[in-house]
Amino acid sequence: MRRTRWMIWLLLGLVGLAVGFVPLPNFYPQPTERVFRVHASQFAFSPGEINVNPGDRVTIELVSTDVVHGLFIDGYGLSVEADPGQSARLEFTADRSGSFRMRCNVSCGAMHPFMIGKLVVGQNQLLWRGIGLAGLALLSVLVGFVYRHPSQ
Prior knowledge:
CATH architecture of the domain at 33-121: Sandwich
CATH superfamily of the domain at 33-121: Cupredoxins -  blue copper proteins
Strand content: 25-35%
Distance between the termini: 15 Å
Number of helices: 2
Low-confidence stretches: none
Number of strands: 9
CATH topology of the domain at 33-121: Immunoglobulin-like
């Protein structure tokens, strides 16, 4: 009985390590052309989040609705500026997976530092790992309960 408990806890620990660190499979479609029209106004981007797949050819058309705005993508080092009532294009290949901050890089007013958005390239692996570890934690609680209160 004691050896069985030890083996179950060891197995749960190994599964937890696998869920936390084994690379997840990537099921992405073939890279495609993706075009996004992003409206910039004091002090927000709309849409605030852009989701693409790795390898996609991305075009962001920045449209400024009020004052001069810029868009800088951290991690890619790319930027573009649009004058009021005008648009500007930024083209790149999404060759880095992860979540990248998009921010206005032209001082556009008092709330300028809070004008941010997000570019997400690929799936949210942290979410799936969290779900897997939460499920494993629930299973561990059940196993612990069974061994503390064996049925008669």
